[in-house]
Amino acid sequence: MPRLGSWIEPHPTGLYIPAADAWIDPSTPRERALVTHGHADHARGGHGSVLATAETLAIMECRYGPQNGQAIAYGESVRMGDVEVSFVPAGHVLGSAQIILDHKGERIVVSGDYKRRPDPTCAPFEPVPCDIFITEATFGLPVFRHPDTGSEMDRLLEALHANPDRCVLVGAYALGKAQRVIMELRGRNHHDPIYLHGAMQRLCELYQSFGVELGDLRAATGVKKEELKGRIVISPPSALNDRWSRRLPDPITAMASGWMRVRQRAVQKNVELPLVISDHADWDELTATLQEIGPSEVWVTHGREEALVHWCMTRQIKARALALAHYEDEDD
Question: What InterPro entries does its record include (predicted)?
Fold first, then answer.
């Protein structure tokens, strides 16, 4: 009797499904790619064809140019060879999806990256019962327990209001994190202009084109210092301490990332106001998700695989770590 999931092949460069002749999130160009979401460690350019949500295809076009893409809606199914393929929300960023593969009476769900916290910029994670659940483990250690997002945003606003002659410069990943921070601020009645580093503008415009209303956004470049006092400025993390930031009025340097739980990372990046805001599930959310879905097997990738594999094994859930290439390019 063949082992469960014998029809899917993990490779360092991605997951290959021979019965569909397709790869999931391949890190090198392939003839046919299924892409979970638009972050660069999952979505690469140069594929012969791409199956993804319309939002993910738009993100890929923004980053890599025109794609030979087929858009698939959440809940829609397509037949690829002998495999039924469908996409459901992953709750990670705009357009992010879990990929459901049905073949030979088995169901495998490839989660991509996901989170379980509410996010006003994307559809929430949808749990799908399955035989094998392939989960990320970016924050797959018990030490990673993310605080309430609202409390972190309140800390940001408190710092802003307490320092009217300074600005708060928030480092946030350009895809997903920046837009989430903006929407969380709007949800707290912060409707003042928010200023953006030039690298953030295209993706913010893309989010708005898909109906995510980000409010009054303005370019930070070329603006007088006086105008930026008492304002929030959002930039890529790489710009927090470079020449660009020196034109700002005595900025309070903040960073929105799950990695801000690690104090040493905040110190290394000279972050004055670490904001623990993540677009990935924390330890409790990873384990709760596995309990909710109830798979026969769990395959773990993209992060701290060993601890989550051990957690599964102590609960009589068969588990294995996959040696997939990943880059953690998200300053999450």
Answer: MBL (IPR050698), Metallo-B-lactamas (IPR001279), RibonucZ/Hydroxyglut_hydro (IPR036866), Xnuc_lig_assoc (IPR026360)
Chain position carrying tokens 């997951």: 15
- For residue 236, CA distances in Å to 107, 170, 308 come to 38, 8, 31
- Return d(Cα 220, Cα 247) in angstroms, integer: 10
For residue 191, the domain's CATH number is: 3.40.50.12650
26 and 132 together in one domain = yes
| Residues 130 and 195 both lie in one domain | no
Q: Are residues 265 and 285 in the same domain?
A: no
Return the C-alpha torsion angle 257, 259, 261, 263, nearest 10. Answer: -110
Per-residue confidence (pLDDT) for residue 1, from 0 to 100: 61
Tokens of 17: 């499904």
How far is Cα 237 from Cα 2, in angstroms, rounded to an integer?
47
List, for residues 103-133, the tens digit of each pLDDT value. Answer: 999 999 999 999 999 999 999 999 999 999 9
Q: Is 61 exposed, middle or buried (0-12, 13-18, 19+ CB in 10 A)?
A: middle
Using alpha carbons only, what angle is made at residue 204 by residues 252 and 156, rounded to the nearest 5 degrees? Answer: 25
| pLDDT-above-70 percentage for the chain | 97
Q: Report strand pairing: 217-219 vs 232-235.
A: unpaired
Question: Looking at the 3D structure of the chain, how many domains does it have?
Answer: 2
Domain enclosing residue 224, as ranges:
149-275
Q: What pLDDT shows up at residue 2?
A: 72
Q: Which residues of the chain have pLDDT under 70?
A: 1, 325-332
